[in-house]
């Protein structure tokens, strides 16, 4: 969000749309690759929807063409898009990967989560215990 705000203040909306579309296509392709890998490595797990593998493989062929064409035609936009994605790596390590965080950091993360939920009206706030209400 912070990177998006900075880009909106510095750049124009067209450039931001290019960044986001590159990021979306990259994430869609990685998701389809994950689908194919899971179908190959774990063929017996339950899947509510199962499609013929020809469909995701065809999608990946078009995806690769679009991604390579994007990288060739606008390498700077794609590079900035990758940098935007990589800004999430420190957040992942601080919030998810680091298991034995000090209690003050856990409280800060819970407080920010609760605040964000209230701000965006995404779920009912569950801050504190039920006795306090």
UniProtKB/TrEMBL annotation:
Please list the GO biological process terms of this entry. Answer: D-alanine transmembrane transport; D-serine transmembrane transport
- List UniProt keywords, sorted A-Z: Membrane, Transmembrane, Transmembrane helix
Q: Is the keyword Transmembrane helix in the record?
A: yes
Residues folding into a coiled coil are: none
Span-the-membrane segments of this chain are 16-39, 51-73, 79-98
Single GO molecular function:
L-amino acid transmembrane transporter activity
Q: What InterPro entries does this protein's entry cite?
A: AminoAcid_Transporter (IPR050598)
Question: Known PANTHER family for this protein?
Answer: AMINO ACID TRANSPORTER (PTHR11785), ASC-TYPE AMINO ACID TRANSPORTER 1 (PTHR11785:SF73)
Q: What is this protein called?
A: AAA1 protein
């Amino acid at each position: 969000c912070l990177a998006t705000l900075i880009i909106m203040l510095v750049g124009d909306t067209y450039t931001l749309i290019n960044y986001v579309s590159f990021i979306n296509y990259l994430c869609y392709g990685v998701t389809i690759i994950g689908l194919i890998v899971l179908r190959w490595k774990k063929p017996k797990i339950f899947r509510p929807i199962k499609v013929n593998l020809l469909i995701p493989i065809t999608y990946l062929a078009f995806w690769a063409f679009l991604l390579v064409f994007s990288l060739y035609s606008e390498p700077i936009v794609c590079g900035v898009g990758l940098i935007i994605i990589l800004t999430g790596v420190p957040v992942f390590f601080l919030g998810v990967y680091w298991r034995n965080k000090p209690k003050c950091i856990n409280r800060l993360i819970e407080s920010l989560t609760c605040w964000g939920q209230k701000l965006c009206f995404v779920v009912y706030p569950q801050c504190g215990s039920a006795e306090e209400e």
